[in-house]
Amino acid sequence: MEVLDERDLESGRADRKRFRPTADGARDNVETPNFILRYVLEHWPQVSDDPCPLEPEEDGLKIEWGDWSFVHPPHSECQQWVEKAVDEAQKNHFSIMLIPAAFNSLYWRESIFPFASEVRILTCPLRFQNQKRQVATQMALVVFAAPGRRHGQLPILTAEPDNWQQAYYKRQRNRDRSGAD
Asked: 32-178 has which fold?
């Protein structure tokens, strides 16, 4: 079900599809782009667990995670998944999360800023599979490590996976224009 407001109907933008979560979470539970997965495995080769698959056999919020997990939760449920990552870090389980960089949200202020080990803001655009438009929000990789792994300020970095243009741009002319090989 598309989420539209009156301004969309008046402006004629009602026919444009947008990436917005629905109440059942069906549209915001999307597959992670392969270039992001390659980037994660390149920088954290220990990752071997995905407690938040697209078709969950078990509820990842209720089970214990593996020693190294990659988590791309539905955007409408980020707060619960971030809180679970904080809990798992207390058990010496590492988590790398792909989530919206909503810096002014409650879960960023209360869970990420005080407890994350590292934040990597993705400077490249993302488009999830079966979506025609890019994600409207900035995305970030947030790392939760064991307690005491962070010394002082939270390191906030920018990240741009290699060859992201190949996966993002569908037309060769756009890849050529972006400088992609």
From this structure: Rossmann fold (3.40.50)
